[in-house]
Structures are given as C-alpha cells and as structure tokens.
Amino acid sequence: MVQAVRVNETGGPEVMTWEHIEIGEPGAGEARIRHTAIGLNFIDTYFRSGLYPAPTGLPFSPGNEGAGIVLSVGEGVDHVKPGDRVAYVGPLGAYAQERLVPAASLVVVPEGIDDKTAAAMMLKGMTAQYLLRQTYKVGPETTLLFHAAAGGVGLIAGQWAAHLGATVIGTAGSEDKIELAKAHGYQHMINYRTENFVERVKEITDGKGCDVVYDSVGQDTYPGSLDCLKPRGMWVSFGQSSGPITDFNLALLAQKGSLFATRPSLFNYIATREDLEATAGELFDVVQKGIVKIGINQEYRLADAVQAHSDLEGRKTTGTTVLLP
After folding, report:
1. What is the pLDDT of residue 36?
2. Sheet of strand 210-215: strand arrangement
3. Is residue 23 part of a domain?
4. Residue 242's domain is classified under what CATH number?
5. Do residues 229 and 165 share a domain?
6. Where is the Enoyl reductase (ER) domain (predicted)?
7. pLDDT of residue 91
8. In the 8-state DSSP scheme, what is residue 133?
C-alpha cells in the first residue's frame, strides 16, 4: 500500500485526508510511477471544493501534474520504460506517493531539468505556451495584460512574452508581488488593490488598449478586462480564482469594440500525442536555454496538502509550489 491525499466529500481544505490506498499493476496503455514531486495548481482547489465535479466521483485524489520514475508499464506501452524520469499533466490522482497514469500523458524529462522543476512547470508552463503561442500568437507588436502576474503561470508567461518582444503589463495585489513580477519580464505593473487597472492600462497604452488580456481571475476582473482591449482585441478567460463569471453578456463584445472572447483549456491543446510532444518540447527548450526560469517559491510535504491549499487560496503563495511525497 501507498499513501495518498483523498477527498471523501467536497468542501474547504480540511476535507482532505491522508490515507493508505492500494495501487494495482498497470493495464494496457498504463504506467505505474513513483512520484518524486507533485505540482500544486489552483485548479486543484476547484475539484476539492466541488466547483469542478471530479470525473471519477467521490472519493478521489486531487492533482493533475507530477514527475517521477516509471516503475512498470502495461501492454502496448513502448515510448517509456521502467527507470525513465517522466513528467505529466493528466487525470486526477497526482496527490499520491505512487499512481497509475495513462502512459500517453507521460513525457520523458530531458537532462538538465530536475524532478522538482519538471513537476512544477508542466501544467503552468504548457498553459503559458498555448496562451502565448497558440490562443493568441504573441510577438513584438503585441501589447498584453496578464492578471495575477505573480502567480505560477504569470511568472512563466511574463518571461516568455518579454522574450517574444511584447509589451507586457501585469496586475498583482501587493508591492512584493509587483517586484517579483517585474523581475520576470513585466515592464509595467498595476497594484489592483490601490489602482484602477482599467484606467492604468489606458495610461500605459496612451489610450489604445491591449491586443490581448489573459484573465485567470474571473469575477473580480470582469467586465473590466474587456475595457482594457483595443477594438477587435481578444479576452482570454482561462481561470476563475475569484469566482466564476455568472452573467456573461455576449452583446458586450460588440458594444466594446467587436471583441473576441475565448475560454480555453490546456487539455484541448494537448489532446493528441503530437500536440503534447510539441507543447512540452517547446517548454523544455525555453527552460533549458534559460529563457524561462522556473522558480519554486514554496515546498510542502504531500501530507501537508491542507496547509498548502489554505495558503494558495489565501493568496499567501507566489509563483510555483511543489508537494513532496
């Protein structure tokens, strides 16, 4: 038996328990891995709270991201083998010492990237990749606004967007977070607690607005994010850390300048093996070249997941956090 964090009923962080579970042998297309590090992401809190229903129902182990060592593989698996160092974004179940995972979600971690870094960057880094390179193709002519700039995705996206030559504007809620974001590619930062971010964006852009706004905050930044855009700009809503938007009015897009709006998900961008390898490969490349640095700002024992979730939801964390089995 191995130990894992389990959610037997949805609710606050306190509903998570530390339990022994049985892990079987891998079936066809599966691999059994021993985790060496697990990524903590805000989406984990959505499943724990019940905002997103767990596909497997209750009970379940949270977590979509991890890194570790392949212990054994099932029939038909030939792209990874026992002993390989691997990382993944996959189905729920990462908050465990060991687990079974669809082998198709595994990528081999290249030399020069350690396990903690791999676990910390897969979901957030591939999210930054699809946002900047696919959802809206950022380049030297792009002016963008990224909410929660000091978060895990934000710090990666800031560095990457700056490398692509964009004008990068961010928001954060404290001076410490603002300084952190400035050290990760953001040329302009807005303290949303003391400044009106819409007015500041207009000032920074000489009234022109942004080409694209990346918004993982949700309720608190809507519809203000739309007012930060140029005519025919794009609003990319990829999260809802402050709560869901429940009254989206499609007509606002016309009223505010024939805007585009999208609600993308990483899993649609890595649904095929080809897309996964391309997305992960580009992420590995910018990390290995030092273009993007993955700063692990917090570490918790996996058994202390309750505290980790409490700190994450209390906005006490910055950047990337890992859980260690």
Report:
1. 98
2. 188-191, 167-172, 143-146, 210-215, 229-237, 260-262
3. yes
4. 3.40.50.720
5. yes
6. 11-323
7. 95
8. I
220 is a domain residue: yes
The pLDDT value recorded for residue 319 is: 80
Domain that includes residue 206, residue range: 140-263
DSSP state string for 149-187: TTBHHHHHHHHHHHHTT-EEEEEESSHHHHHHHHTTT-S
Other Cβ atoms within 10 Å of 231 Cβ, number = 10
Whole-angstrom distance, CA of residue 61 vs CA of residue 181: 32
What is the domain-level CATH number for residue 94?
Answer: 3.90.180.10
Q: Tell me if residue 135 falls in helix, strand or coil.
A: helix
Q: What is the DSSP letter of 300?
A: E
Distances in Å between the Cα of 2 and the Cα atoms of 24, 60, 95, 308 are 11, 15, 11, 21
- d(CA 217, CA 40) in angstroms, rounded, equals 17
CB atoms within 10 A of CB 179: 13
pLDDT of residue 5: 98
Q: Beta strands of the chain (E only): which ranges?
A: 2-7, 16-21, 30-40, 65-73, 85-89, 98-102, 106-108, 143-146, 167-172, 188-191, 210-215, 229-237, 260-262, 296-301, 320-324
Question: What is the total count of domains within the chain?
Answer: 2
Considering the domain boundaries, does residue 280 fall inside one? yes
Question: Cα 293 to the chain's mean position, in Å?
Answer: 15
Instruction: Give Cα 275 to chain centroid, integer Å.
Output: 17
What residues in the chain have per-residue pLDDT under 70?
A: none
Tokens of 55: 């596909």
Q: Residue 137: what pLDDT? A: 98
Whether residue 241 sits in one domain with residue 147: yes
| pLDDT for the residue 247 | 86
Provide the token pair at 277. 């390898």
Q: In this structure, is residue 288 part of a structural domain?
A: yes
- Among residues 263, 284, 306, the one where a domain terminates is 263
Per-residue model confidence (pLDDT) at position 242: 86
Task: Go through 199-228 and write b for each residue having 16 or more CB atoms within 10 A of its CB, e for each that does not.
Answer: ebbbebbeeebbbbbbbbbbeebbebbbbb
